[in-house]
Amino acid sequence: MKHRLVFAFTAALFLAGLAAADTKDPATATKAPRTADGHPDLSGIWAFAIDLPPVTLKKEINGKVSLTDIDSSAARPAQGPVPGALPSTPAPSYKPEFRQKVKDLFDNESKTDEVFYCGKPGVPRIGPPRRIIQLPGEIVFLYEDISGDPYRIIPTDGRAHRKDANPSYYGDSVAHWEGHTLVVDVTNFLENGWFGEGGYFHTDAMHVTERLWRDGKNLAWQASVDDPKVLAAPWIMPPRVISPSTDPLEESPPCVEDDAHRLLNSDHHQQR
Amino acid sequence: MRHKISATLILVALLLAAGAVWAHHSPSAVFDMSKPFTLTGTLTKVDWYNPHITVYLDAKKDDGSIENWKFESNPPSWFRRVALARDDFAKAIGQTVTVEGVRAKAGGAYGYLLKITFPDGNSLELVVKGPLNSQ
Fold this sequence. Notes:
Chain A has 4 helices and 14 strands. Chain A is of the alpha+beta class. Chain A has one domain (45-247). In chain A, the strands form 4 sheets. In chain A, strands 7, 8, 11, 12, 13 and 14 form a 6-stranded antiparallel β-sheet that branches. Chain A starts with a helix and ends in a 30-residue tail after the last strand. By secondary structure, chain B is of the alpha+beta class. Helices cover 20% and strands 40% of the residues of chain B. Chain B is built from 3 helices and 6 strands; from the N terminus they run H-E-E-E-H-H-E-E-E. Chain B has helices at 2-17, 76-81, 86-90; strands at 31-47, 54-60, 66-72, 96-104, 110-117, 123-128. Chain B has a 5-stranded mixed β-barrel with strand order 1-2-3-5-4. Chain B is globular and about 40 Å long. Classes of the chains: A alpha+beta, B alpha+beta. At the A-B interface, strand 2 of A face helix 2 and strand 6 of B. Strand 2 of chain A pairs antiparallel with strand 6 of chain B.
Protein backbone atom coordinates (compact mmCIF):
# COMPACT_ATOMS: atom_id res chain seq x y z
CA MET A 1 0.00 0.00 0.00
CA LYS A 2 2.81 2.34 0.96
CA HIS A 3 4.60 1.55 -2.30
CA ARG A 4 1.43 2.24 -4.27
CA LEU A 5 1.04 5.59 -2.53
CA VAL A 6 4.66 6.52 -3.26
CA PHE A 7 4.22 5.43 -6.90
CA ALA A 8 1.03 7.43 -7.24
CA PHE A 9 2.66 10.49 -5.69
CA THR A 10 5.71 10.14 -7.94
CA ALA A 11 3.53 9.65 -10.99
CA ALA A 12 1.47 12.69 -10.07
CA LEU A 13 4.64 14.78 -9.74
CA PHE A 14 5.88 13.48 -13.08
CA LEU A 15 2.62 14.27 -14.83
CA ALA A 16 2.49 17.67 -13.18
CA GLY A 17 6.01 18.30 -14.48
CA LEU A 18 4.99 17.30 -17.98
CA ALA A 19 1.95 19.51 -17.78
CA ALA A 20 4.06 22.44 -16.63
CA ALA A 21 6.48 21.88 -19.51
CA ASP A 22 3.63 21.62 -21.96
CA THR A 23 2.08 24.90 -20.94
CA LYS A 24 5.34 26.53 -22.02
CA ASP A 25 5.01 24.87 -25.38
CA PRO A 26 2.86 26.97 -27.68
CA ALA A 27 1.62 24.04 -29.72
CA THR A 28 0.36 22.08 -26.73
CA ALA A 29 -0.89 25.14 -24.94
CA THR A 30 -3.28 25.68 -27.81
CA LYS A 31 -4.33 22.01 -27.86
CA ALA A 32 -3.22 21.26 -31.38
CA PRO A 33 -4.82 18.11 -32.79
CA ARG A 34 -2.61 15.02 -32.90
CA THR A 35 -2.21 11.99 -35.11
CA ALA A 36 -2.48 8.43 -33.81
CA ASP A 37 1.28 8.28 -33.26
CA GLY A 38 1.10 11.27 -30.94
CA HIS A 39 2.64 13.93 -33.15
CA PRO A 40 0.91 17.24 -33.80
CA ASP A 41 -1.33 16.90 -36.83
CA LEU A 42 -0.18 19.25 -39.58
CA SER A 43 -2.57 17.76 -42.13
CA GLY A 44 -4.95 19.93 -44.02
CA ILE A 45 -5.40 22.56 -46.66
CA TRP A 46 -3.64 25.79 -45.86
CA ALA A 47 -4.12 29.27 -47.27
CA PHE A 48 -2.52 30.17 -50.60
CA ALA A 49 0.87 31.58 -49.67
CA ILE A 50 2.11 33.28 -52.83
CA ASP A 51 1.95 37.04 -53.17
CA LEU A 52 -0.94 38.37 -55.24
CA PRO A 53 -1.69 41.89 -56.43
CA PRO A 54 -3.15 43.92 -53.54
CA VAL A 55 -6.24 44.68 -55.51
CA THR A 56 -9.92 44.44 -54.61
CA LEU A 57 -12.48 43.16 -57.09
CA LYS A 58 -15.40 45.51 -57.61
CA LYS A 59 -18.21 43.58 -59.18
CA GLU A 60 -21.39 45.20 -60.41
CA ILE A 61 -24.14 42.74 -61.24
CA ASN A 62 -27.65 43.99 -62.03
CA GLY A 63 -26.88 47.27 -60.31
CA LYS A 64 -25.66 45.59 -57.15
CA VAL A 65 -22.07 46.39 -56.23
CA SER A 66 -19.88 44.03 -54.21
CA LEU A 67 -16.25 44.26 -53.19
CA THR A 68 -14.06 41.20 -52.69
CA ASP A 69 -10.66 41.39 -51.05
CA ILE A 70 -7.87 38.86 -51.10
CA ASP A 71 -5.85 37.72 -48.11
CA SER A 72 -2.12 37.47 -48.80
CA SER A 73 -1.06 37.24 -45.16
CA ALA A 74 0.26 33.70 -45.61
CA ALA A 75 2.67 34.98 -48.25
CA ARG A 76 4.23 37.55 -45.94
CA PRO A 77 6.28 37.44 -42.73
CA ALA A 78 4.06 37.14 -39.70
CA GLN A 79 3.05 40.39 -38.07
CA GLY A 80 4.13 40.25 -34.45
CA PRO A 81 5.81 37.47 -32.49
CA VAL A 82 5.03 33.84 -33.30
CA PRO A 83 5.27 31.41 -30.35
CA GLY A 84 7.89 28.77 -31.08
CA ALA A 85 9.66 30.76 -33.80
CA LEU A 86 13.41 31.23 -33.89
CA PRO A 87 14.89 34.75 -33.88
CA SER A 88 15.06 35.86 -37.49
CA THR A 89 16.42 38.62 -39.68
CA PRO A 90 14.67 40.20 -42.66
CA ALA A 91 17.47 39.48 -45.16
CA PRO A 92 20.45 37.13 -45.59
CA SER A 93 24.01 38.26 -45.10
CA TYR A 94 26.34 37.45 -47.98
CA LYS A 95 30.11 37.37 -47.83
CA PRO A 96 31.43 40.79 -48.94
CA GLU A 97 32.75 39.50 -52.26
CA PHE A 98 29.24 38.36 -53.32
CA ARG A 99 27.21 41.42 -52.32
CA GLN A 100 27.65 43.22 -55.62
CA LYS A 101 26.51 40.11 -57.46
CA VAL A 102 23.34 39.98 -55.36
CA LYS A 103 22.67 43.64 -56.11
CA ASP A 104 23.26 43.16 -59.84
CA LEU A 105 20.96 40.17 -59.96
CA PHE A 106 18.25 42.07 -58.12
CA ASP A 107 18.65 45.20 -60.22
CA ASN A 108 18.18 43.11 -63.35
CA GLU A 109 15.65 40.75 -61.90
CA SER A 110 13.43 40.62 -64.94
CA LYS A 111 16.35 39.31 -66.95
CA THR A 112 18.11 37.17 -64.37
CA ASP A 113 15.36 35.51 -62.36
CA GLU A 114 14.18 32.16 -63.74
CA VAL A 115 10.94 32.47 -61.78
CA PHE A 116 10.00 35.50 -63.90
CA TYR A 117 10.06 33.12 -66.86
CA CYS A 118 7.82 30.54 -65.20
CA GLY A 119 10.80 28.75 -63.61
CA LYS A 120 10.63 26.65 -60.48
CA PRO A 121 11.05 28.62 -57.25
CA GLY A 122 12.43 25.63 -55.33
CA VAL A 123 12.83 25.39 -51.58
CA PRO A 124 12.48 27.56 -49.56
CA ARG A 125 11.27 30.22 -52.00
CA ILE A 126 8.03 28.43 -52.72
CA GLY A 127 7.06 28.91 -49.08
CA PRO A 128 4.77 26.71 -47.01
CA PRO A 129 2.80 23.89 -48.62
CA ARG A 130 -0.81 24.36 -49.68
CA ARG A 131 -1.74 20.92 -48.50
CA ILE A 132 -0.11 18.51 -46.04
CA ILE A 133 -0.89 14.81 -45.88
CA GLN A 134 0.65 13.30 -42.78
CA LEU A 135 1.15 9.55 -42.86
CA PRO A 136 3.02 7.13 -40.61
CA GLY A 137 6.66 7.30 -41.71
CA GLU A 138 6.24 10.05 -44.29
CA ILE A 139 4.64 13.40 -44.88
CA VAL A 140 3.49 14.77 -48.23
CA PHE A 141 3.62 18.44 -49.16
CA LEU A 142 1.51 19.62 -52.11
CA TYR A 143 1.88 23.03 -53.70
CA GLU A 144 0.19 25.27 -56.26
CA ASP A 145 2.63 27.23 -58.35
CA ILE A 146 2.70 28.80 -61.79
CA SER A 147 5.72 26.65 -62.69
CA GLY A 148 3.60 23.54 -62.22
CA ASP A 149 2.22 22.05 -59.04
CA PRO A 150 5.13 20.42 -57.25
CA TYR A 151 4.93 17.85 -54.49
CA ARG A 152 7.39 16.54 -51.97
CA ILE A 153 7.23 13.13 -50.29
CA ILE A 154 9.32 13.44 -47.17
CA PRO A 155 10.35 10.45 -45.06
CA THR A 156 9.87 10.84 -41.31
CA ASP A 157 11.01 7.32 -40.38
CA GLY A 158 14.57 8.23 -39.55
CA ARG A 159 16.17 7.33 -42.85
CA ALA A 160 19.10 9.32 -44.18
CA HIS A 161 19.22 11.48 -47.31
CA ARG A 162 19.29 9.65 -50.60
CA LYS A 163 22.73 9.23 -52.05
CA ASP A 164 21.56 8.50 -55.60
CA ALA A 165 19.25 11.50 -56.15
CA ASN A 166 20.05 14.09 -58.78
CA PRO A 167 20.32 17.69 -57.61
CA SER A 168 17.04 19.57 -58.03
CA TYR A 169 15.18 22.80 -57.29
CA TYR A 170 13.34 21.21 -54.39
CA GLY A 171 16.30 19.19 -53.13
CA ASP A 172 16.21 15.98 -51.14
CA SER A 173 14.24 16.10 -47.91
CA VAL A 174 14.10 14.04 -44.74
CA ALA A 175 12.25 15.08 -41.61
CA HIS A 176 12.06 14.35 -37.91
CA TRP A 177 10.15 15.65 -34.94
CA GLU A 178 11.72 17.88 -32.34
CA GLY A 179 9.04 18.08 -29.68
CA HIS A 180 6.02 19.55 -31.40
CA THR A 181 7.93 20.82 -34.40
CA LEU A 182 8.49 19.00 -37.67
CA VAL A 183 12.02 19.71 -38.83
CA VAL A 184 12.65 19.15 -42.53
CA ASP A 185 16.26 18.89 -43.63
CA VAL A 186 16.78 19.67 -47.32
CA THR A 187 19.98 19.21 -49.32
CA ASN A 188 21.16 18.38 -52.87
CA PHE A 189 20.10 21.53 -54.69
CA LEU A 190 20.90 22.68 -58.19
CA GLU A 191 23.39 25.49 -58.34
CA ASN A 192 22.47 29.12 -59.01
CA GLY A 193 18.81 29.03 -58.06
CA TRP A 194 17.45 31.82 -55.90
CA PHE A 195 16.25 31.14 -52.39
CA GLY A 196 14.43 34.44 -52.21
CA GLU A 197 13.34 37.51 -54.04
CA GLY A 198 16.13 40.04 -54.14
CA GLY A 199 18.83 38.21 -56.07
CA TYR A 200 19.44 35.73 -53.26
CA PHE A 201 21.38 33.22 -55.32
CA HIS A 202 22.76 30.03 -53.85
CA THR A 203 25.25 27.33 -54.73
CA ASP A 204 25.00 23.55 -54.65
CA ALA A 205 26.17 23.74 -51.05
CA MET A 206 22.88 25.23 -49.87
CA HIS A 207 21.31 23.50 -46.91
CA VAL A 208 17.77 24.40 -45.94
CA THR A 209 15.95 23.60 -42.73
CA GLU A 210 12.20 24.08 -42.59
CA ARG A 211 10.32 24.04 -39.31
CA LEU A 212 6.57 23.52 -39.19
CA TRP A 213 4.36 23.52 -36.14
CA ARG A 214 0.82 24.29 -35.10
CA ASP A 215 0.06 27.73 -33.78
CA GLY A 216 -3.43 27.10 -32.53
CA LYS A 217 -5.63 26.45 -35.54
CA ASN A 218 -2.94 27.86 -37.82
CA LEU A 219 0.20 26.41 -39.31
CA ALA A 220 3.51 28.11 -38.58
CA TRP A 221 6.39 27.77 -41.06
CA GLN A 222 9.92 29.02 -40.78
CA ALA A 223 12.95 28.19 -42.89
CA SER A 224 16.64 28.75 -42.47
CA VAL A 225 19.23 28.77 -45.22
CA ASP A 226 22.89 27.97 -44.95
CA ASP A 227 25.30 28.19 -47.84
CA PRO A 228 28.86 28.37 -46.53
CA LYS A 229 30.21 29.09 -50.01
CA VAL A 230 28.44 32.45 -50.28
CA LEU A 231 26.66 33.37 -47.04
CA ALA A 232 28.49 35.02 -44.17
CA ALA A 233 26.16 33.25 -41.73
CA PRO A 234 23.06 31.05 -41.90
CA TRP A 235 19.92 33.05 -42.53
CA ILE A 236 16.87 32.38 -40.40
CA MET A 237 13.91 33.70 -42.33
CA PRO A 238 11.01 35.46 -40.62
CA PRO A 239 8.24 32.98 -39.74
CA ARG A 240 4.92 32.85 -41.50
CA VAL A 241 1.55 31.97 -40.05
CA ILE A 242 -0.86 30.28 -42.42
CA SER A 243 -4.53 29.93 -41.68
CA PRO A 244 -6.53 26.81 -42.55
CA SER A 245 -8.40 27.01 -45.83
CA THR A 246 -11.40 25.43 -47.48
CA ASP A 247 -10.13 26.45 -50.92
CA PRO A 248 -9.26 23.13 -52.58
CA LEU A 249 -6.10 22.72 -54.62
CA GLU A 250 -6.57 23.23 -58.32
CA GLU A 251 -4.26 22.55 -61.22
CA SER A 252 -2.39 25.74 -62.04
CA PRO A 253 -3.03 27.06 -65.55
CA PRO A 254 -0.10 26.89 -67.97
CA CYS A 255 2.51 29.58 -67.62
CA VAL A 256 3.26 31.58 -70.75
CA GLU A 257 5.51 34.55 -70.08
CA ASP A 258 4.79 37.25 -72.64
CA ASP A 259 5.95 40.48 -71.04
CA ALA A 260 9.73 40.24 -71.00
CA HIS A 261 10.06 41.58 -74.54
CA ARG A 262 7.86 44.54 -73.60
CA LEU A 263 9.73 45.52 -70.46
CA LEU A 264 11.42 48.87 -70.86
CA ASN A 265 13.22 48.56 -67.53
CA SER A 266 13.95 45.86 -64.98
CA ASP A 267 11.29 46.99 -62.57
CA HIS A 268 9.33 44.02 -61.36
CA HIS A 269 9.19 42.57 -57.91
CA GLN A 270 7.88 40.04 -55.47
CA GLN A 271 7.27 36.73 -57.08
CA ARG A 272 6.94 35.16 -53.67
CA MET B 1 -17.75 61.37 -67.27
CA ARG B 2 -15.43 63.67 -65.37
CA HIS B 3 -15.87 61.59 -62.22
CA LYS B 4 -15.19 58.43 -64.19
CA ILE B 5 -11.92 59.78 -65.55
CA SER B 6 -10.72 61.03 -62.20
CA ALA B 7 -11.54 57.70 -60.56
CA THR B 8 -9.57 55.88 -63.24
CA LEU B 9 -6.63 58.23 -62.82
CA ILE B 10 -6.67 57.66 -59.07
CA LEU B 11 -6.80 53.93 -59.65
CA VAL B 12 -3.83 54.15 -61.98
CA ALA B 13 -1.89 56.23 -59.47
CA LEU B 14 -2.61 53.69 -56.77
CA LEU B 15 -1.63 50.82 -59.02
CA LEU B 16 1.63 52.61 -59.69
CA ALA B 17 2.22 53.02 -55.97
CA ALA B 18 1.35 49.40 -55.39
CA GLY B 19 3.76 48.24 -58.06
CA ALA B 20 6.33 46.99 -55.62
CA VAL B 21 4.10 44.17 -54.46
CA TRP B 22 2.66 42.92 -57.72
CA ALA B 23 3.06 39.27 -58.51
CA HIS B 24 4.89 39.18 -61.82
CA HIS B 25 6.01 42.68 -62.58
CA SER B 26 5.07 46.19 -61.73
CA PRO B 27 2.47 47.42 -64.26
CA SER B 28 4.58 50.52 -64.73
CA ALA B 29 7.42 48.38 -66.10
CA VAL B 30 5.31 47.61 -69.14
CA PHE B 31 2.39 50.03 -69.23
CA ASP B 32 2.06 53.77 -69.36
CA MET B 33 0.07 54.37 -66.22
CA SER B 34 -0.50 58.02 -67.09
CA LYS B 35 -2.67 57.22 -70.08
CA PRO B 36 -5.80 55.28 -69.18
CA PHE B 37 -8.13 54.70 -72.07
CA THR B 38 -11.40 53.04 -72.93
CA LEU B 39 -11.99 50.71 -75.86
CA THR B 40 -15.15 49.05 -77.09
CA GLY B 41 -15.06 45.99 -79.32
CA THR B 42 -15.91 42.35 -79.76
CA LEU B 43 -14.49 39.93 -77.21
CA THR B 44 -12.86 37.18 -79.28
CA LYS B 45 -10.83 35.04 -76.88
CA VAL B 46 -9.83 34.58 -73.23
CA ASP B 47 -6.57 32.88 -72.25
CA TRP B 48 -6.57 31.69 -68.66
CA TYR B 49 -2.78 31.52 -68.41
CA ASN B 50 -0.15 32.34 -65.83
CA PRO B 51 1.31 34.73 -64.97
CA HIS B 52 -1.54 36.87 -66.37
CA ILE B 53 -4.88 36.17 -67.93
CA THR B 54 -5.33 37.69 -71.37
CA VAL B 55 -8.48 38.89 -73.11
CA TYR B 56 -8.62 39.66 -76.81
CA LEU B 57 -10.73 42.36 -78.34
CA ASP B 58 -11.46 43.26 -81.97
CA ALA B 59 -12.03 47.00 -82.09
CA LYS B 60 -13.00 49.11 -85.08
CA LYS B 61 -10.62 51.94 -85.90
CA ASP B 62 -11.70 55.32 -87.23
CA ASP B 63 -10.97 54.20 -90.79
CA GLY B 64 -13.25 51.21 -90.35
CA SER B 65 -10.51 48.60 -90.19
CA ILE B 66 -10.39 46.11 -87.30
CA GLU B 67 -7.59 46.22 -84.79
CA ASN B 68 -6.83 43.11 -82.70
CA TRP B 69 -6.25 44.20 -79.12
CA LYS B 70 -4.76 42.10 -76.39
CA PHE B 71 -5.20 42.98 -72.70
CA GLU B 72 -3.44 41.19 -69.90
CA SER B 73 -4.70 41.42 -66.35
CA ASN B 74 -4.11 39.94 -62.91
CA PRO B 75 -2.91 36.33 -62.47
CA PRO B 76 -5.41 33.45 -62.54
CA SER B 77 -4.71 32.77 -58.85
CA TRP B 78 -5.89 36.30 -58.00
CA PHE B 79 -9.09 35.87 -59.99
CA ARG B 80 -9.67 32.54 -58.30
CA ARG B 81 -9.36 34.12 -54.85
CA VAL B 82 -11.98 36.70 -55.75
CA ALA B 83 -14.24 33.90 -57.01
CA LEU B 84 -13.99 34.62 -60.72
CA ALA B 85 -13.35 31.95 -63.33
CA ARG B 86 -12.50 32.03 -67.01
CA ASP B 87 -16.14 31.57 -67.90
CA ASP B 88 -17.06 34.84 -66.20
CA PHE B 89 -15.24 36.48 -69.12
CA ALA B 90 -15.57 33.82 -71.81
CA LYS B 91 -19.37 33.82 -71.67
CA ALA B 92 -19.21 37.15 -73.50
CA ILE B 93 -17.08 35.90 -76.40
CA GLY B 94 -18.61 37.16 -79.62
CA GLN B 95 -20.33 40.04 -77.83
CA THR B 96 -19.51 43.72 -77.55
CA VAL B 97 -17.68 44.69 -74.36
CA THR B 98 -15.98 47.83 -73.11
CA VAL B 99 -12.54 47.67 -71.55
CA GLU B 100 -10.85 50.35 -69.49
CA GLY B 101 -7.11 49.95 -69.18
CA VAL B 102 -3.67 51.35 -69.81
CA ARG B 103 -1.50 50.99 -72.90
CA ALA B 104 1.85 49.22 -73.24
CA LYS B 105 4.76 51.66 -73.24
CA ALA B 106 6.27 49.73 -76.11
CA GLY B 107 3.24 50.60 -78.20
CA GLY B 108 1.06 48.31 -80.21
CA ALA B 109 -2.44 47.08 -79.51
CA TYR B 110 -1.57 45.86 -76.05
CA GLY B 111 -2.87 46.96 -72.66
CA TYR B 112 -3.60 46.10 -69.05
CA LEU B 113 -7.27 45.51 -68.29
CA LEU B 114 -8.58 47.40 -65.28
CA LYS B 115 -12.29 47.14 -65.96
CA ILE B 116 -14.56 45.27 -68.32
CA THR B 117 -18.22 46.07 -68.88
CA PHE B 118 -20.41 43.44 -70.51
CA PRO B 119 -23.36 44.04 -72.85
CA ASP B 120 -25.86 43.63 -70.00
CA GLY B 121 -24.18 46.47 -68.08
CA ASN B 122 -22.57 44.21 -65.52
CA SER B 123 -18.92 44.94 -64.86
CA LEU B 124 -15.75 43.66 -63.20
CA GLU B 125 -13.20 46.17 -61.99
CA LEU B 126 -9.80 45.99 -60.31
CA VAL B 127 -9.69 48.38 -57.36
CA VAL B 128 -6.73 49.01 -55.08
CA LYS B 129 -7.59 48.61 -51.40
CA GLY B 130 -8.14 51.80 -49.50
CA PRO B 131 -9.25 55.14 -50.89
CA LEU B 132 -11.05 53.83 -53.95
CA ASN B 133 -13.29 51.59 -51.90
CA SER B 134 -14.95 54.61 -50.42
CA GLN B 135 -15.68 56.25 -53.75
